[in-house]
Amino acid sequence: MFKGMIHKGSLSALAGLLAVMLILPYFMPRFYLYLIASILVMALLAMSLNLVVGFGGLFQFHHGVFYGVGAYAIALLITKTGLPQWICFILAPFAAALAGLIIGLICIRLRQLYFAMIQISLGSLLWALAFRWYDFTGGDDGIHGIPMPDILSGIHNSYYFILIVFTLSIIALFFILSSPFGITLQAARDNAQRCEAIGVFVKRHQLFAIVIASFFAGVAGVLFVVLEGSVFPDLLFWVLSLEILIMCLLGGWFTFAGPIIGAALMLSLRSFIGMQTEYWTLILGIILALLIFFLPQGVWGYILEKVKPHKEAVVEREA
Amino acid sequence: MLRVENLRNSFGDFRAVNGAELAVEKGKIVAVIGPNGAGKTTLFNLITGHLKPDSGKIVFKGEDITGLPPYAICKKGIARSFQLLNIFPRLTVFENVQVAVLSQHNRSLHLFRPAKNLLVAETRHILENVGLLSESQKIAGSLSQGDQKILEIAIALGNKPEFLILDEPTAGMSAEETSATMALVKRLAVEQGLTLLFCEHDIDIVFSMADRIMVMQQGKTIIEGTPDEVRQNEQVQQAYMGGS
């Protein structure tokens, strides 16, 4: 699990990886730079989802909506208000967190599939709002050409910005998961009844997790706008929520870094196989089916299992 | 310390608890016995808030706690273990107990501070006390059945309870494990001055260990008294000890 990442060896490996990422723009073609940046954005979104799904055990089936709210929030704040841009950057994730709080408050009263259903309905409501309200959100056209600060213009600058924010966010997520809050959240996932019996107000705890996850989804939404300079209703559509769920599944539910691998796999597949055929989802489907049969713990879960055999017992239970 | 008055609860038409009466004094060990389906577990679930009673009253330390949610009742000082295994299978043994200790210290919501350095001594002390310290870094789900039952008790102790409810702490254990576990429970109760309410199928253990025994049948309290009083009660002999 993520605890393994603290070891000195993996820490230096991570520092090395970060160094490589930092010098990439000097020799990487724009296309790949753009691809890596979008992978980082999607990976942050998937990791925020995994906080509530993998570690919280909640059926967060429409997490994409908070990503969309973050993206729309910054787009609307920049184009419709006269606020300084840096304030818009800070406010947007909080807008997503607020959406998480409101939707979470309603959903948390229900359990499992009912939780998922009400969340999908409420999220679709927001999607319909963005899709239909032409005067305010631009309707199905979305908002294009959102002005960005000069230091973020160009793929190199936005790549660095995304890389830095991504790194800071996953460090924060890592600390949250290993904090008392994180351990208690995992305890509530394993056994909610028992967790109540040791004095934890489980629903409040889970709601708090949804708000945190929504905040980081909002951060990912902001990063999307930095990369693309536009927003459109698809960001709030449930298909995206399904895709990030698949990313978590591909990488491994119960691992910290799994969703990053999942996002990288999925976006690379889309880019490279998508160039050959528009039926790339067919190939994705086959890969997914094979993975569920042979690597139910996800790609990253499988690798961790090979590296640390003593964790095997757990992974089998998870399967 | 704990008083249960005329408690009733039904599932549909089935009256699981139908007028249970119980009074537990501080520092005493009280056992609840009765045939399967007598309503023992339901009674415990009512006391700890996992079920809400239809009528009746539960008073703990002079305070009416009837119908409070489980986490609130836990904060009042009542901890429990469950009949069916009820641990956090994917966490380590250490974390299983630590979660309870963190909750007891109201730190469950703390962010941005690694949990592994928090309240370590207290958690290790509990694990040492129940004899699971050597297993502390194992994943809880990989422990043997018996050790998992012990871990359950350790989790309950993490809340520093004044009042501990154990619902069949030895279910599924061999005779040897049973007596070892009950000796452990007795030692913990004496050392920590716990008030203990438990149910157990092994009648010999119950009569040798409990200060008072409450006998339940079909959701009702038949008698509540010292082991000797209970042993001599005719109704008990018929209903419980005489035949099946």
Q: Describe it for me?
A:
- The complex is a heterodimer of chains A (319) and B (244).
- With 319 residues, chain A is mainly α.
- In chain A, helix 2 runs parallel beside helix 7 and helix 4 (85-107) crosses helix 5.
- Chain A has helices spanning 8-23, 30-53, 64-80, 85-107, 112-132, 134-137, 154-178, 180-190, 192-197, 202-228, 238-251, 258-276, 280-294, 299-307, 312-318.
- Chain A has a single domain (2-318), classed as ABC transporter involved in vitamin B12 uptake, BtuC (Orthogonal Bundle), CATH 1.10.3470.
- Chain A has 15 helices and no strands.
- Chain B has 244 residues and is an alpha/beta fold.
- Chain B folds into two domains: 1-77 and 161-244, P-loop containing nucleotide triphosphate hydrolases (Rossmann fold); 87-158, no CATH class.
- Chain B contains nine helices and ten strands.
- Chain B has helices spanning 40-47, 70-76, 93-104, 120-130, 145-157, 175-192, 203-209, 227-232, 234-242; strands at residues 2-11, 14-24, 29-33, 55-60, 63-64, 78-81, 163-167, 195-199, 212-217, 220-225.
- In chain B, strands 6-7-8-3-9-10 form a six-stranded mixed β-sheet, with helices on both faces.
- In chain B, helix 3 packs across helix 4 (120-130) and helix 3 packs parallel to helix 5 (145-157).
- The radius of gyration of chain B is 18 Å and the shape is globular.
- In chain B, 47% of the residues are buried.
- The A-B interface holds A 172, 175-176, 178-184, 186-187, 189-191, 193-202, 205, 208, 254, 311, 313-314, 317-318 and B 48, 50, 69-71, 74-75, 79-80, 82, 86-91, 95-96, 98-100, 102-104, 107-116, 118, 139, 141-142, 155-156, 158-159.
